Amino acid sequence: MNESGFRCKKPNGTFYLYVKAPIGTKSGVVFNSALKVAEYLLQNANISVVPWDDSGHYLRFSVTFEASSVDDEIKIMNELRKRLKVLDFIF
Questions:
Q1: Of 11, 23, 30, 57, which sees the most CB atoms within 10 A?
Q2: What percent of the chain has pLDDT over 70?
Q3: SS3 of 19, please?
Q4: Given its phi and psi angles, is residue 5 left (phi above 0), alpha (psi -120 to 50 degrees) or beta?
Q5: pLDDT tens-digit readout, 26-65
């Protein structure tokens, strides 16, 4: 996620990750809310997040997926990395 511009650290006691939402993309898309970012992620990368706009613009990512092995977990995380990087977010 950090490679895609999000500023985050792995949480110690939860599987939720809260990050500041991007303000736009290098291609010119502008986001005025976390809700707009969440819609963009779903439509353009098939990634579902929970938007939070009550105290700034944040997104909640949940690391809840089914994998049958550590190798499968790595494949899933690499796929997430690939999908996020091509969106070229601006923060």
A1: 57
A2: 98
A3: strand
A4: left
A5: 999 999 999 999 999 999 999 999 999 998 999 999 878 7
Count of alpha carbons within 13 angstroms of residue 29, beta-carbon side: 16
Place of tokens 């599987």: 15
* pTM score: 0.84
Two tokens, residue 77: 């995380």
Q: How many helices and strands in the chain, by DSSP H and E?
A: 2, 5
Question: Taking Cα atoms as reference points, which of 26, 30, 6 lies closest to residue 18?
Answer: 6
d(Cα 18, Cα 61) in Å, to the nearest integer? 6
Tokens for 67, please give them: 């994998």
- State the pLDDT confidence band at 7, using cuts at 50, 70 and 90: confident
The H or E element that residue 52 is part of is strand 50-52
